[in-house]
Automatic annotation (TrEMBL):
Pfam families: Cytochrome_C554 (PF13435), Paired_CXXCH_1 (PF09699). Signal peptide: none annotated. Residues 203-237 form the Cytochrome c-552/4 domain. The keyword Signal applies. This is C-type cytochrome. Residues 315-345 form the Doubled CXXCH motif domain. The keyword Signal applies.
C-alpha cells in the first residue's frame, strides 16, 4: 500500500516537522480522511462534574483520592503501589519518550520500520519513512501501569467528524522491553492510519478510556473531564456527599461497597465492568474458552465449582484485597485463601486428594502464556486434564 500524508506544519521539532493536522491518503483507498493531531488540553484536576449512576446523593461530585486519605490512610497507601493507581497518562508525563526516542522497531510485514523521536517538551512521535518520509505521528496517551505493559493511544478526527483512537502497534513491556502490542501480531492495516496501529471509535473507544480512568469522556479527539487512573471513586462512586457526612459525625453510615445491600453479585458486576463478564463474549468463546480468556478473570471464576457451589458467597475479594497489588501478596497468602474453603480439619469441606497445604494455584489455576511472554491466571479453578 502506497500512502501520502498531507500536513499542516506548526513548527520544527528536534528531528523534523511537527504536525498539527493531516490527511492520510492511500492509493488503494483514496480520501481516507482528515484527523486532528493537536494535543488537547487535558485537565488532571481531582474534581469532575459528570454524574454516575452509582453515586450517593444527587449532587455528589468527585473529591479525589487525597481527600479519601483523611480516613482511609492504609488503603490509600496500598493503592499507591497498585497498578490501578497508574493506568492513564499523557505520554510526555512518563518515561516512554526516554525509552523510545532515537530508536527503531520493525513493525512487521505490511507495516515497516518505525522510527521514534521526542521533542524538547518530551512529546513522543513516530515516523514511517518508507510511507511518509520525515513526517511524524504523535503518540499521545499511555494506557497501563507498566507492571505488565504500557500501550500508547492517539485520538484523531476522521473525515466524518467522529473521534477515532489509534492503539499503537508497539508496546513497552515490563523492564523497558519493546514488542508488538497484544492482539496486533496478525492484524493487517486496512487504511493508511492503521499502519500506526489498531483503530477504534464509538463505544469500544470510550470503554477503553473508561477502564483506565476514574472519569473521562471522549469528545472531539480529546478526553474531557479527565480524572486519570483507577482511583477510589472509580469503584466507590463520587465521594463528596460521603465526605460531608463523615466530617460531621464520628460514626458515618457505610458507603458504597460497604452498604448492607452489597453482595457478591454486585461485586462481580463491578469488577467485571472492566475485567469483563460473559456478556462481553460470544457463545463460541465461552464454550471453547481459548487461552486469551485468561484476561477475562471474572468469566473464569463464574464457571468454577468453587463459585457455583458457594451459594453466592464467593466473590473477587474472597481471594483479593482490591487495594493491594498482587505483587505484594505472598504465595502462602494465596494458599491460605484456598484453605479457607478446603481445610482438612473441617469435615464439611472438600479436601484436595493430592495436597492439603500447597500447590493449589499451580495445579488448579496455573498461569497461561499470552502474547509477548505475558502470563495470566484464567481464574477458572478446576481439576486440569493431564
Amino acid at each position: 500500500m502506497v500512502a501520502k500524508l498531507n500536513i499542516r506544519v506548526i513548527g520544527m521539532g528536534v528531528a523534523g516537522l511537527v504536525v498539527a493536522s493531516a490527511t492520510l491518503i492511500s492509493s488503494n483507498e483514496p480520501g481516507i480522511g482528515t484527523f486532528d493531531l493537536q494535543h488537547p488540553e487535558v485537565s488532571l484536576t481531582q474534581f469532575g462534574d459528570a454524574k454516575r449512576s452509582d453515586q450517593t446523593g444527587a449532587d455528589a461530585k468527585f473529591v479525589g483520592r487525597k481527600v479519601c486519605r483523611e480516613c482511609h490512610e492504609t488503603n490509600f497507601d496500598l493503592h499507591a503501589n497498585h497498578g490501578h493507581a497508574s493506568t492513564f497518562h499523557q505520554v510526555s508525563q512518563t518515561d516512554l519518550p526516554e525509552i523510545f526516542a532515537d530508536t527503531k522497531f520493525d513493525g512487521g510485514a505490511n507495516h515497516g520500520i518505525y522510527e521514534y523521536f521526542a521533542d524538547d517538551q518530551q512529546a513522543l512521535y513516530v515516523r514511517l519513512p518508507a510511507e511518509f518520509g520525515q513526517q511524524a505521528f504523535p503518540l499521545q496517551y499511555a494506557l497501563g501501569s507498566g507492571q505488565h505493559a504500557q500501550t500508547m493511544l492517539t485520538l484523531t478526527t476522521s473525515a466524518d467528524g467522529q473521534t477515532e483512537g489509534i492503539e499503537h502497534r508497539v508496546t513497552c513491556y515490563h523492564n523497558e522491553r519493546v514488542g508488538i502490542t497484544p492482539g496486533h501480531s496478525k492484524k493487517i492495516p486496512s487504511n493508511a492510519l492503521e499502519l500506526f496501529g489498531d483503530m477504534q471509535r464509538g463505544e469500544p473507544l470510550q470503554r477503553c478510556v473508561d477502564c483506565h480512568t476514574t472519569q473521562g469522556e471522549v469528545v472531539d479527539a480529546s478526553v474531557k473531564g479527565l480524572v486519570a487512573n483507577v482511583n477510589c471513586e472509580k469503584c466507590h462512586g463520587p465521594g463528596s456527599e460521603h465526605v460531608r457526612v463523615a466530617r460531621n459525625t464520628p460514626t458515618p453510615p457505610k458507603y458504597s461497597v460497604g452498604r448492607e445491600d452489597w453482595d457478591g453479585e454486585s461485586e462481580i458486576q463491578l469488577c467485571g465492568d472492566c475485567h469483563r463478564l460473559p456478556k462481553n463474549l460470544s457463545e463460541r468463546e465461552v464454550r471453547e474458552y481459548p487461552d486469551l480468556l485468561a484476561r477475562f478473570q471474572p468469566v473464569g471464576m463464574l464457571r468454577s465449582r468453587c463459585y457455583l457451589e458457594s451459594n453466592g458467597q464467593m466473590r473477587c475479594t474472597t481471594c483479593h484485597n482490591p487495594h493491594q497489588t498482587i505483587q505484594a501478596v505472598a504465595k502462602d497468602q494465596h494458599i491460605h485463601a484456598c484453605i479457607q474453603c478446603h481445610d482438612n480439619q473441617n469435615t464439611e469441606h472438600v479436601v484436595c486428594s493430592v495436597s492439603t497445604d500447597s500447590g493449589c494455584i499451580g495445579c488448579h489455576m496455573p498461569p497461561l502464556e499470552m502474547d509477548e511472554g505475558l502470563r495470566f491466571h484464567d481464574h477458572w479453578i478446576r481439576v486440569r486434564e493431564e
